[in-house]
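call fold(seq) -> tokens
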Amino acid sequence: MAAVKHGRSGRRGWKKLHLGVDGSGVIRAQAVTESTVDDATTGSRLVEHVVGEVASVTADAAYDTVAFYKAAGARGATVVVPPAKTASVSQRGPRSGLRDRTIRRVEALGRRRWQKESGYHQQARVENAFFRYKLIIGSGLRARTPGGQQTEARIACNVLNRMTELGRPAS
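ret:
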């Protein structure tokens, strides 16, 4: 209320945490952005900056953009992103052959069977990483500056990775 009283908006903005998680649940990349930043743009940057080989990239429909497919394709990765329900194959030449193949496959199989065939269920690993982050680290940031927030997220992800490493059963 005090912020509104003194001429500023009463609502604070929020930050978004983007995570890149590998098949074993280890966080390989992270970024903190403003809430207005496009998910696919940030996801493209995360894919570009992952160290090592990237075999596949799985994400939700918010990442269904030509730029995201290009970034993942440039790394030689298989892209598993469900196309938007209104997505159609490119009519002006192949803007993204990977994306067009996905759209055709979803049309041929149906969305549910495509998800099973493509391994889309792996996206749950990222959701699990977010759950662990919020449960152990918390849902808020303590740092006030953007640089400090990036550093805080990086440290938190390193802590979670170390805890995951220590807590895995030897099997």
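The CA atoms of residues 15 and 35 lie 5 Å apart.
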